[in-house]
Amino acid sequence: MRDPLSVVTDAFTSFLFGKVETTRLxxxxxxxxxQAVYLPTAAPGLGDSGVIIGREVYSGKGYIxxxxxxxxxxxPAPHWLVLGxxxxxxxxxxKTYVLRQLxxxxxxxxxxxxxxxxxxxxxxxxxxxLGITPIRLDPMAALDHGIRLNPLDPSITTTGQLALLRTIIxxxxxxxxxxxxxxxxxxxxxxVNETIVERQPVLSDIVERLRHPEPESAEAMNxxxxxxxxxxxxxxxxxxxLVDGDLRGMFDGPTTVGIDLDAPLIVFDLSHIDRNSIAMPxxxxxxxxxxxxxxxxxxxxxxxxxxEEAWHIINSPFVAQLFQRLLKFxxxxxxxxxxxxxxxxxxxxxxxxxxxxxxxxxxSTRTIYAQKADEARATGRVLGLPRWxxxxxxxxxxxxxxxxxxxxxxxxxxxxxxTERPLVFTDRAMTESxxxxxxxxxxxxxxxxxxxxxxxxxxxxxxxxxTVA
Length: 469
Description:
By secondary structure, the chain is α/β, with parallel strands linked by helices. The chain folds into 2 domains: 41-147 and 263-462, P-loop containing nucleotide triphosphate hydrolases (Rossmann fold), CATH 3.40.50.300; 158-244. The chain is 46% helix and 14% strand. The protein has 22 helices and 13 strands. It has helices at 4-17, 31-37, 67-70, 90-101, 124-129, 139-143, 158-173, 179-195, 203-211, 215-221, 225-231, 233-244, 279-294, 311-314, 317-333, 345-348, 353-362, 373-383, 387-392, 421-424, 427-432, 439-459; strands at residues 51-56, 62-65, 79-83, 107-113, 116-117, 120-121, 135-136, 265-269, 302-307, 335-341, 363-368, 400-405, 408-414. It has an 11-stranded mixed β-sheet with strand order 2-1-13-12-11-3-10-9-4-8-7. It is elongated and about 125 Å long. The termini are far apart.
């Protein structure tokens, strides 16, 4: 029972100053309780270790990604597929990602740069900034003592050399080698490796032996020497293109001395090669196998192998088979393969559908920039994206993409710093865009796009588990 004096005092105070409010304890809550009240903040992130990509559109949280940090617990494979039409920000994402990865001392990057203008590759500016000279593969320059890569380099195993030779021939012919042609190639390759010891064997040695096989080869198979010569004739004609045809100079001599495979960034400039010719997949196969045997080593370094115009690899069953092996071995050797493709239909509807599906399955991270509605639906079916993500892809503006990291799907705005901007937004990248906006108008358009995307995601958050039929 309260003291009578206290009751009188409270009554008098209330009369003069108004009713006295009841004192309450402060409210205490946990992060989990706050997330339960405001659901958009409850989506799990990818951790706080790695490189900053940008921010999640719907929540504003920073988006951090690193396949080497996530591999094992959140990622079954460290490989990454980047999709989207030109002018939407793929190049800027790739370049800033590489620049930010190189801040870690244990990271090393190889780029196959298949795009460019004004006689140089798209990565030329970044290479110059880092004091690196790109490895420019150019048939015309190779004739004047340019860069050469030897498919018969002694650093490549005998098995690897034979597999590479078969791939070159099969890509050029458009079909696999039959048993007789394969036998002629195998015999010629074995003879060259056994008899030439004073120098590096080269492709012209293989061509010469195919045209003039040893009698012992025919005797071993109990066939006429003319038959063995006939078996290897088509193979010799294909390899002759690399020796004395339009691709001469790049692969018909010993590997150029002095290629620095210890540099933090290694750029293979393929911009002088017609990207629509048969030369491009052949070139990528040779570079890929050469790197597999000379660059990837079982040390503590984490390696990133980024391939522009990667449909040349995925869309060829023979080249894809070589890269499948590279990707499988890469997981235990600390290799992350980044494939950049404009349209998924370029690869899944081609002759290498089976091989393409295998490589896509290894890519546990998928980043999809704006695509047309029908292309987005096809992409969603192949990749198993949530319905809401498929519906939002056609509405995305440059710099915003759907990220699917092993089922964790977010809409992410890529952020570029002022220091990075001059390096990643080259003249070519800017002219790809179909919209010419002032800085103020561009920022306003970006804000509007982010708000529209955020509203869309919040509206469809309950449908995030459903996938495209």
